[in-house]
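cache lookup: miss for this entity combination. No prior model stored, computing from scratch. Input as submitted by user K.M.:
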Amino acid sequence: MRALLVLIGLAVALGGCDREERKLAKLPSAAPSPATGERRGDLQPGQKGSGLEQTTSSRSFDGKNAFELAQGKRLFRWYNCSGCHSMGGGGMGPALMDNRWIYGHEPDDIYRTIMEGRPNGMPSFRGRIPDAQVWQIVGYIRSISGLAPKAAAPGRNDGLAVTRPENERERATPRNAPGSG
Amino acid sequence: MAEQMPGKPPMLPRVALALAVCSGLIAHAQDAAGDGAWPMAAHDYANTRFSPLDQVNARNVHSLKLAFSFKTGTTRGNEAAPVVVGSTMYVVTPFPDYLYALDLSRPGANVKWRFDPKPKASAQGVACCDTVNRGVAYDGGRIFMNTLDGDTIAVDAASGNEIWRAHLGDITRGETITMAPVVVKGKVLVGNSGGELGVRGWLTALDAATGKIAWRAWSTGPDADVLIGERFKPHYAQDRGKDLGKTTWPPDAWKIGGGNAWGWISYDPKLDLIYYGTGNPGPWNPDQRPGANKWTSGVFARDPASGEAVWYYQWSPHDLHDYDGVNENVLVDLPIGGKTRAVLLHPDRNGYLYVLDRATGEVLSADPFATITTSFGVDLGDGKLRYNPEKTPRAGRVVHDICPASPGAKDWQPSAWSPRTHLLYIPHNNLCQDAGTYETSYIAGTPYVGADVKMKPGPGGNRGEVLAWDPLARKKVWAIDEKFPAWSGALVTAGDVVFYGTMDGWFKAVDARDGKLLWKFKTDSGVIGQPVSYRGPDGRQYIAVLDGVGGWAGGVVSADIDTRDGSAGLGFTNVMKDLPQYTKKGGTLYVFSLP
């Protein structure tokens, strides 16, 4: 019993470490971001030709860090993702808080969705959002349906209270559409 | 491409024959209307939605029976009106905008042809409020239709073959087309959608013969773009001045300022003027666009030949709540002040039923037909809407009990006018909201809104109402409460029956004189379409309507919106959480007649 408590304590402490850790400047990690292919669809937000030139591309997914997820939440509104997906309930784009994933729920799947776009109206943001920010958004998107640890998921909304915050969401066990990913 | 339906002989010989026989009979929009046809979404240029047929009447409508039905093969919101000319019915679906021709001369009305315009799939992501299509127009042997991805297409009514296609909208900037075109004097009139994505609004006239652009009138920008010139004589002082479409905005904001003409167009052949409304200014957050934001949320009268503006009136100057001005303008002649005046009736999103002199744009009356907290009234002296400063959104603050909510006291759902009862039948919403605004950045092709809204039922708790309005007495004559927003169009007939559908799936017939329920039919999915009536080739009167819940109000069903997020679907979700318990997705045409 005692040992168990210690273990739990340790786990909480460790989880807490992840939650609070703040990597200020990220060095490109060994693992590169997954290769993205052709844009899927006709939509590319912003004015043509004024996009970012990506210099480095490193896989920097962190789904357990409160800062990363909070940044992701801020960017989700900043880049108008929220305009189409609302606070996860959907609208012009599909709901992201449910357990249905058309194109897969793994971080690399979501990364590809954002970079390449998807044929039925998801714009391709490649060249518009810096890579590190895309990974922050990926982490946040997973927290929308409870796929991030509660300890790290955002706990408040800046705007009108219309939905429970992410850290109160139950994990929605993903059901990927056949052939997704 | 028109697709041949299986099991039928090749079409060519028959088409050729039909052309030979019918060429002398090819009907033009307005001529066809008088004869039991329904050639355009609004039935006629005056936008009355009045059917002169009276076989079905208030005494016998209780025995109305389903004559046939037809599955559209789609599950998004069906907001269209079926169009009927001769022995053919034309039905357009939501994305992918299939156009069907049904042969009414055969039992069960089998499919003559299906035209698939193949719109770009990406268009679905930039359609603010479901992927709807509000109908097609018939003129001179052609069907004119719009696609969600921004094309206008002329299709041969006999064969279903494409005649021409004009590419008008650019989905990469968030521009779509959802409205029903109208053909006036050989010009196809089309307006764009995209007021929630910073799309600059326009109305475009295409040559019906060739599809070439005859003129385009922008809703914002310099006078030259708005087609404002010598002939422009607005009634009120605030609408006079040079380049107001530019000067009533912060620099360059007019380029992404909305004012989309996505609603209804009417036409008065005597005055030779068309009338149509302009949509909300963008973004919703008003702090980002100080000024009157001309020429958004107002109504234009224009010369259909040149597009020149003749007058304009602004329902909601510097709109604060997404009150688009695109609702129908129903053209009627009324005895006012001892003489007959040519007026237009307009139930606006801001909650007032306007009566305007349609020659001059003077407001003759403006009375609330719904609960209004956002304004105190319309000053008939200077024509100005008197806003309630307490309900003005300000960044960083939540404003409570804004009535009407953003979809307005009435959204796109068109009303019907009976020249027999002299009443306007208005299906509409009873919704209020809390709202918070914030600064939003413009990223082309993404939403440009800057407001979180949380809608709730208006006073009484019923979210919808269908009412009969007497524009002379300036009051409600009767009203029917509906659980959900009354999001379908209305139809009234010479048999004094009003038809409309509900989002929980009832198609109803009520007495035009007192609103008494006379008949109802349970549909598979909720009804948000526009009911129509026509005389079939067998001489009998039919009533037709599409089900298929959706639209802005029905996204919780049609777009699988998650109801745990009240802000979803531009804030409509909070007030529609129970809709999935009452109805499901669908897409069926129902046609009724007396046994």
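stored under new cache key. Chain B touches chain A at residues 120-128, 171-172, 196, 398, 434-436, 438, 440-441, 443-449, 452-454, 555, 559-571, 573-574 (CB under 8 Å).
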